[in-house]
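Collaboration report, partner site 2.

Our partner group contributed sequences for two proteins of shared interest, and the home lab folded both. The records are reproduced in the order in which they were received, starting with the first partner submission.
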Amino acid sequence: MRAYHSLPDGYREVLQINMQSDRKTALKINVGAGIVNVLVLVAGHFIVPYTEFLNMSPVSAVFLRFAVMIIAYIVYMAMHELTHAAVMKAVGGGKVVFGFTGLYAFAGSREDWFDKTAYRCIALAPLIVWGIVFGFLAFVVPRSWFWVVWFLQAGNIGGAAGDVYVTAKLWHMPDTILVRDTGVDMTVYGRQE
């Protein structure tokens, strides 16, 4: 599991994934993310009925939790990208770039090529790390705050749809592939035999 700072000899481009230019794939991923969000929120209703969130008294308690939820989600989006970046660094990556396309935030590297195992760890780390964190918090916060945490969990799981999509695309590719992820596009390189 490692990063290469230059493309080794004998590799050529075999796949390009660009959510900015491939609107059809981006739409499928976003619809899938929306469906997953809804399913996670519905599952939360069986843990703590959403009516408990809406029927709080005084009404200001609902607005307070809603405001905390929005602010926490913005912070979470930054933490999601920082988690990608931390794993990039942990596997030997260099400079990480951050940005926002209007559709999504990203962390990427223009200088590194990651092996398949490293890239899968990079892609899935936020889903796993934050899934565990929010799952734990959902069951330890007071019941009246459950939906604040569960909303973050739904955003985490649904928001990882692009990461899961890319990981699935790479699943059956040879273990020798290298992935360059600039944040807005991913290019997969295969070793010529």
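Second partner submission, folded after the first:
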Amino acid sequence: MLVPILGVWVFVSAAFNWWPFSGGALAFPGEHWLPHDISVHGVVIDGLYYFILAVTGAIFIATTVAMFWFLLRYDGRQNATPVKFIHGSHTLEVIWSVLPAVTLLFIAIFQMNAWSDVKIQRPLQSVGPDGEQGTLDDVFLPPLLEVTGRQFEWKIRYPGEDQEFDTPDDIHLVNDLHIPVDEEIVIAIKSDDVLHSFFLPNVRLKQDVVPGMKQYIWFEATETGTFDIVCAELCGWGHYKMKGRLTVESREDFERWLGQKYKAQETNQLSLELAER
């Protein structure tokens, strides 16, 4: 009996942390369902998660209770009633086929706006000359940086003082991503070798990084601090160590940090040139 008792305690204790009356003596630590959210779209995504959790949880409880009821009600050792065989019910088959289909369709429609905001509607820098948003002449917000997945690290590149990529003054880093807070950020991502998955848990953002394909992701962080970057796709023997650090800071601190990195890289390049001479 310890297994079902422990399972019920885990579920109930976790639920108490989710609801406003959390904090009991037997309650779990906070943020065990999901890590702390620091993104604008995280509230909607978390809402979808908890909604699906509630629906699947209710179905799980109902089917489990029904299963135990049948086990007790029709126990062969205690039930003397002769067994009656039936050949199915067309009505029941229709019901348990239609209900899941309707539930899945509802979830699909319910999440369309969230999916569009996070994966489809790339932020705009400005609308085009026609003055209408959503037309071909819209100007997209350019990427602040580029992230390249490779076994087993995240290569990060910022444009230099010329604000253009693929020029000699680009700033190259590894596993150290800095962004300004309260600003919509666009990141270009790609892979050098195999399939990776760029995952920022606290931003509720995950995107597969496909070899040969350049993609764009976007988000807006609402809190400063240091957070995890991980790879959510098994990409080889060193997958476990493919992690990095996301630092969210004020625009002033970000500009200061970027300037320091640019000067340090410029000094290193000058030192290498002098050494070669």
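Feedback sent to the partner group on the second submission included the following. Residues 2-71+91-118 form one domain. The mean pLDDT is 86.
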